[in-house]
# Entry
Amino acid sequence: MDCKVGITGSIASGKSLVTAALRELKYPAFDADFEVRKLYENQDIQKKVLQLFPNLSTINKEYIAKIIYNDTQKRLELNNIFHPLIETKLLEYLTQHQGLVFADIPLLYETNLERYFDYVICAYAPDYVRLKRFEERTKKIDANIILSLIDNAQMSQEKKASKSDFIVHTHEPNLMQQLENIIGKIKECTK
# Structure
């Protein structure tokens, strides 16, 4: 049984928790954010990014983030550098793995990558949980403002949840049980 399952959700919704739990269950899981971090290490990519931000001499992700969440055109230009490369890496990963395969892609719906998946899981957490996670991750005093800017630039988590086949409530203590139930339903549907 080959079945491809996308994982999406808003920032700090718990996608990484879901992906880590799936790997613990021994399922292969692609991680788009990890792939983006690797791409940022590529000198050709760095040159392209620096051309978009001429007042930078080296990559400064914090500065870039502040710009792209306030400037739609810059965000689109940056996405045009990364999204095709991520799509290529995703397709390579999906063809290299058989059986039940997962892929953590934060902007799955925004980039129309859902077309490669049989099912989609949305990682979901209430906004107050997401803010707490984001504050812990970034250590920023103005985390609520930054989180709001990011949320406004992306599809809402409610809309992502409504478009998805399954929702995992990552703030609840039974994450592994939720995933095992979803995997059981997927396996049942694909018999």
Notes: Residues 37 and 61 are 10 Å apart (CA to CA). The chain has a mean pLDDT of 92.
